[in-house]
Write a structure and sequence with these properties.
Four Helix Bundle (Hemerythrin (Met), subunit A), two-stranded antiparallel ribbon, 3 domains, Spore Coat Polysaccharide Biosynthesis Protein SpsA, Chain A, alpha/beta
């Protein structure tokens, strides 16, 4: 049950009368109820607030009594999916005693008097915060400390200088609570201190069409070029229709999967009308992929299941399309159609792994400003400053180039649709591979330089064994501490790549004796399983391990003369397993229920080695594919149907700026 507390202490505006003659504090209490709070209480002071928090069993919403806002602003704060603890942040000028904040990547990394933050302030605390269950003890401690003027009050705020809610939030931040910022766009929220300010704020609230603003707010504030100009210009109208007919975000997600699957089937046929129709369906499927997120934001229907499903569906749809393109290219007489599809899927998965872990790295660096400051003005520092300038210059040519060159999903789907409709599936796959490779080289080079500047040991703050996807064999290997885990993982991947090259350029069924040798090289990566992952580039370890396992499996399939479609299917099942781990990292979920039965990257590779030596590679790969797919489906059922996965509070680095809604 969500508890809302209106804190009037130290707020002269609490007794002001609104335009309807209702005290401002009472109107706020009514708005909190309309925003979804099941229980609304008043707290005369911080001591009483601490007592109320101590008895809470669910999230707690706290606001001062000087906030004038649309009810939708409070509802958005109460239902925000970005994290357990979220604070309202405004662009109002700092007032007497008001707490200023400094944000990095959507996180509040500092809070206190404006003079203490100097030029680092990015806004002011909006007088309202939602605090997650795990942070409630810290909230109570901050309240007690602020009540006595003793403890971690940022900048040494004196009791008489600030409203109680400001001192409370400054203390909460100073105690290290991970807090995400909720910005107000299109709607109105202001903190007031007198009758004139109250009247002006109420007038501003009344001038906004709340429903129209909420529909526009359902569109992401910053999206990619294709999505911004070719989808989001009309998708909100589809979103509104879906809301009116009662379709939920999950239903829209599943419809988008049907569209993508239909496009894949049309791409597989190979004739021109089918290719054009497939391109159209793929575009419409992407529109629906955006609509599911917009619908979630518009209706405020968020769930861990919906976010997880959206992540998994996005990848499944894209890789089904690759399968259709691979089949279509093969049917058109191109020998390497399936090979291109497998290569595109492998490349994109490795790219996503680097994207996910670099995001974790960057979020962790934002929470550790001292670590960020070690750049000393080097090239990483300059690159970071340049990147921030470009990101701030919204709408400029450089801004759009930066967002487009990384080959985001909208641009990928647009390229596939156009290249297939105008040319052929083979051209589409080659285009995806070329652009994807250039994007990986560009982002990899820049991120490597910036990561060396940040020097944050990301994998030391999470369950490295889980996200490495180590199995029982890797856990029992000795630890080679003289060589870093990234070097070992890279060596293993190079060994697998060498085996693949040998299989491709040698005899149709290459020498099987090379498989166990390559496996032993791959197994070098396991020697780093128990080592500290605290190098500046160790965030690349999961991606290197994925590359090594996929390349090894492909090579074993090539040498064992396994049908190309079966190799694709096996790698596809592996990607589902690994995207499940990444989705859980981003959504702050526990490990999959049946993670232990998936054998780990080295266990699966060992089985492939055995079936290769035995000469039953096709049978072994097919059997292992079915086994892993069954384990994945059973794990999904256990996690989301039988016993829904509990949201967990992991180490700080596992918490990224998103438990993002779909789309």
């Amino acid at each position: 049950m969500t508890l809302a507390i209106v804190l009037a202490a130290g707020t002269p505006a609490a007794g002001l009368q609104t335009g309807t003659g209702q005290p401002l504090a009472d109107r706020l209490a009514t708005q909190w109820r309309e925003a979804g709070a099941r229980d609304v209480r008043y707290a005369a002071d911080l001591v009483e607030l601490a007592e109320l928090v101590a008895g809470a069993t669910g999230p707690v919403l706290v606001s001062g009594a000087d906030l004038v806002a649309h009810t939708a602003v409070l509802r958005h704060l109460a239902t925000s999916p970005v994290g357990p603890t979220v604070a309202l942040v405004l662009t109002d000028p700092p007032g007497a005693g008001r707490t200023s904040v400094r944000e990095e990547r959507g996180q509040v990394v500092d809070a206190g008097p404006a003079q203490e933050l100097a030029d680092g302030a990015t806004g002011i605390f909006g007088g309202a915060v939602r605090v997650g269950v795990d942070d409630l003890p810290t909230l109570a401690a901050a309240a007690r400390a602020a009540a006595t003027g003793v403890g971690a009050l940022a900048g040494g705020m004196a009791t008489e200088e600030a409203p109680a809610v400001d001192r409370l939030f400054a203390g909460l931040t100073a105690l290290g609570t991970l807090t995400f910022a909720h910005r107000v766009r299109l709607l109105v929220a202001h903190r007031v201190s007198d009758a004139a300010g109250l009247a002006a704020a109420e007038s501003a609230v009344g001038a906004v069409d709340e429903d129209r603003a909420e529909l526009r707010l359902s569109v992401k504030e910053k999206d990619d070029f294709f999505t911004t100009y070719f989808v989001s210009t009309w998708s909100p109208q589809v979103t509104k229709v879906c809301a009116r007919v009662g379709l939920g975000p999950t239903a829209v997600t599943m419809i988008s999967v049907v569209f993508a699957a239909a496009a894949a089937l049309l791409f597989a046929t190979g004739d021109r009308p089918a290719l054009v129709a497939g391109g159209v369906l793929l575009y419409l499927g992407f529109v629906l992929d955006c609509v599911d997120g917009q619908l979630a934001r518009y209706t405020r229907h968020f769930s861990a299941w919906g976010g997880w499903l959206d992540t998994m569906a996005d990848r499944a749809k894209e890789y089904l399309v690759y399968a259709g393109l691979g089949f279509g290219a093969t049917q058109a007489g191109f020998r390497w159609g399936w090979a291109l599809a497998v290569a595109a899927m492998t490349l994109q998965t490795v790219r996503h792994m680097t994207d996910a872990w670099y995001g974790v790295l960057h979020d962790e660096a934002a929470r550790r400003p001292k670590a960020v400051a070690t750049g000393g003005g080097g090239i990483g520092d300059r690159l970071n400053a340049a990147s921030n300038r470009v990101q701030a210059d919204t709408g400029s040519v450089s801004y759009w180039l930066k967002r487009t060159v990384v080959f985001p999903i909208g641009e990928r789907w647009a390229l596939i649709a156009l290249a297939t409709a105008l040319f052929s599936p083979r051209v589409a796959l080659v285009a995806v591979l070329v652009w994807g490779t250039l994007a990986l080289a560009y982002t990899g080079a820049l991120r490597t330089l910036r990561a060396r500047w940040m020097w944050v040991p990301v994998l030391d703050t999470v369950d490295a064994t889980l996200h490495r996807d180590d199995g029982p064999l890797a856990a029992r290997l000795p630890v080679l501490r003289a060589v870093g885990p990234l070097t070992l993982a890279a060596l293993g991947a190079l060994g697998a790549a060498g085996l693949l090259v040998a299989g491709l350029v040698g005899e149709p069924s290459g020498p099987r004796w090379m498989v166990p040798v390559a496996f032993l090289v791959l197994l070098l990566a396991g020697l780093g399983a128990g080592a500290a992952h605290n190098g500046p580039l160790d965030w690349l370890v999961p991606a290197a391990l994925r590359a090594g396992e996929y390349l090894f499996a492909i090579a074993v399939g090539v040498i064992g003369d396994v049908p190309a479609w079966l190799i694709f299917g096996y790698v596809f099942v592996l990607t589902l397993h690994h995207y499940d781990l990444v989705a859980r990292l981003e959504k702050r979920q526990a490990a999959p229920p049946l993670h232990g039965v998936t054998l780990g990257w080295e266990g699966r590779s060992a089985l492939l080695t055995i079936v290769s030596i035995a000469g039953i590679t096709s049978f072994g790969m097919a059997t292992l594919s079915v086994y892993l797919l069954a384990a994945f489906v059973a794990s999904v059922v256990l996690a989301w149907v039988v016993r829904p996965t509990r949201t967990v509070r992991p180490a700080a680095a596992t918490e990224t700026v998103g438990s993002r809604p779909p789309g």
